[in-house]
Amino acid sequence: xxxxxxxxxxxxxxxxxxxxxxxxxxxxxxxxxxxxxxxxxxxxxxxxxxxxxxxxxxxxxxxxxxxxxxxxxxxxxxxxxxxxxxxxxxxxxxxxxxxxxxxxxxxxxxxxx
Length: 113
Hints:
By secondary structure, this protein is mostly helical. The protein has 5 helices and 3 strands; from the N terminus they run ααβααββα. A hairpin with a 5-residue loop joins strand 2 and strand 3 (78-82).
């Protein structure tokens, strides 16, 4: 049952948009909603960011599909965390990106070093 659900979600989401990818990665550990933009900035060495409108739309969509869960604390703080289905989608994206990385590494491209 769970495998079928995971596969349907993988088929729906993969390939991930940049906003969805960054959101899922940032909530791999429980995190307050207000800390997610800072987490994304840290993860990307301040090279990428997503707007708050995009972030909250993505959080809502991922919560509806149960890729992440939203817990509201006594002081109305939203804590987001990756679920098993979110982890399955993220793992599928990792595998897809790994294949793309293998392909590009076969080319003799110059580096910025």
